[in-house]
Amino acid sequence: MASLDKPSVGTSTVKWRFPDIHPEGRKYVLIAGAIALVSLFVWDFITWPLVFLTLGVAAFFRDPVRVTPQGEGLIVSPADGLITMIERVDLPPELAGPQALGEGSMLRVSVFMSVFDVHINRTPITGTIRHVIYIAGKFMNADFDKASEENERQHIIVEDKNGQRIGFTQIAGLVARRIVSFVKAGDMVVGGQRVGLIRFGSRVDVFIPEAYGVEVALGQRAIAGETILARKGAPRAAGIAQ
């Protein structure tokens, strides 16, 4: 099991520091930096643009520490970004059935990640990974509703100790070209633990069970591993067909 991001206990002063770069992205930072260095001796007029590109790649793969809320019945956001859709939809075929999330429709909360957002994705609950289902597809704008059916995507189902299953889907976008998974079926995960990333702009859909009330609103910004998307037993928000 991966190490957790936990707050320190004690009297020490907490200081801000630059976020780490995730290992998955370090090779891209090195490649961009090497090209910028070579350009200094060959095409010096593009050196500064390449330096800024290198800094941009480093920022894209940043991996900040997160402190996940503790407690029963919480679903936290698996992604940084903007809440762009909260609506009831039919379950994707890969998430339907008795061995998955059941039949019929569920409330879906969509978090859109721009290229400026952190792209490390985290599990919304503590439990066991039951399914990791990858599907090849297109690379249309992830903000389009039909991207959930046609784009490259990966479904993940996590089951908690009480048997409650939560499904979420990583969707590649117009610029994103690869979904990278850090987990597999059978792995134990703790709420807020890193489970994967999507390179360069994308979306994550979370399917909310009937017993949960959504606690975010359209246009709100979510922080992966910290923002509570839904809470078990919470009142259902007015204006949302839950």
UniProtKB/TrEMBL annotation:
Pathway: Phospholipid metabolism; phosphatidylethanolamine biosynthesis; phosphatidylethanolamine from CDP-diacylglycerol: step 2/2. The keyword Protein biosynthesis does not apply. Its cofactor is pyruvate. It is found in: Cell membrane. Is synthesized initially as an inactive proenzyme. Formation of the active enzyme involves a self-maturation process in which the active site pyruvoyl group is generated from an internal serine residue via an autocatalytic post-translational modification. Two non-identical subunits are generated from the proenzyme in this reaction, and the pyruvate is formed at the N-terminus of the alpha chain, which is derived from the carboxyl end of the proenzyme. Its EC number is 4.1.1.65. Belongs to the phosphatidylserine decarboxylase family. PSD-A subfamily. This is Phosphatidylserine decarboxylase proenzyme.
